[in-house]
Specification:
Helices cover 72% and strands 0% of the residues. It is an all-alpha fold and 86 residues long.
Amino acid sequence: MSVLDNFDQWKDFLGDRLHQAQEKGVEQQTINQLAYEVGEHLATKVESHNEEEALLRDLWNVASEDERHAMASIMVKMVQDEGTVK
């Protein structure tokens, strides 16, 4: 089972990666830019595996570039308290 199959597992996975980046001193602006790039990749190259991902893809596809950056930043905030390493 892939982390993409279950939205809660996906959030835990992202939370763990976020915490690892923060522990290594990666700046928030860089984290947000990486989140934007991941969002762009997922929206254009990866099939949705659940309803949440489908909704995020639909929102991403109708959003302007500024709105996409805002969505990426919001996703980072959403997973801040997720993951197995907090």
